[in-house]
Design goal:
Blueprint (H helix, E strand, L loop, with lengths): L1 E4 L4 H11 L1 H9 L3 H24 L5 H25 L4 H24 L9 H22 L6 H31 L9 H7 L1 E4 L3
Antiparallel strand pairs: 1-2
Helix pairs in contact: 1-3, 1-4, 2-3, 2-4, 3-6, 4-5, 4-6, 5-7, 6-7
């Protein structure tokens, strides 16, 4: 009988891939190789799309995966925002909204899991919408600047403003969920990460 760890699956691998893609993205973007930087971001966005689909379709949802996915999103979006701010300083106030929102959610999630042993909220539609808008906005801005050498500041501000509004709305909704979980006494909202990782093992018949 073979023991398998349910945390080792395709969706979790895609989330890790999304984190790893940050490194080549930063290198390419800072070197001015915008086309390849956009390719990295598109691959990151596709991995974000498919990890959730695969997890639901093949019943590969795990506690580790539910935490890896938002962490990968936050690290990616924060990195992209910083890169954009360095490249286009006038956008710094708008991009600060993205970084602040992601930092607050990351710290809040870690506080729930590590300090309170509570289960953070899973990704909701409004959070995913903000992520999609963020990726689309960056791809448009980077493609215009990197491929066609065009920089339309009003368009950049408009795209990022719409994304910022959506992200602030998502932050508000997630904050409500955060405090609801914090006050909850329901056992389903509790989590012990170490025990849960060990428990995610199941026997598999040898072939």
């Amino acid at each position: 009988m073979k023991i398998t760890n349910k945390n080792i699956n395709v969706p979790n691998a895609l989330s890790i891939l999304r984190i790893l893609l940050i490194i080549p993205f930063v290198i390419l973007y800072t070197r001015g190789e915008f086309v390849w930087a956009v390719v990295c971001l598109v691959l990151s966005g596709l991995s974000d799309l498919f990890d959730g689909i695969i997890a639901r379709r093949f019943h590969q949802q795990t506690e580790v995966g539910q935490m890896l996915d938002p962490i990968a999103d936050k690290l990616t979006q924060g990195t992209v925002a910083i890169c954009l701010a360095i490249q286009i300083p006038v956008l710094l106030p708008l991009l600060a909204v993205f970084v602040l929102k992601e930092l607050l959610m990351l710290v809040g999630g870690m506080f729930l899991v590590l300090k309170k042993k509570k289960r953070p909220s899973k990704a909701m539609w409004y959070g995913k919408l903000g992520t999609v808008l963020f990726y689309c906005s960056f791809v448009v801005i980077a493609a215009l600047k990197g491929i066609w050498k065009i920089e339309i500041l009003p368009l950049d501000i408009a795209l990022l403003s719409v994304t910022a509004v959506c992200m602030l709305y998502a932050l508000y909704r997630y904050a409500k969920l955060f405090f609801a979980v914090l006050r909850s006494t329901d056992p389903k909202d509790s989590i012990d990460l170490k025990s849960d990782i060990k428990a995610k093992r199941e026997p598999k018949e040898a072939e």
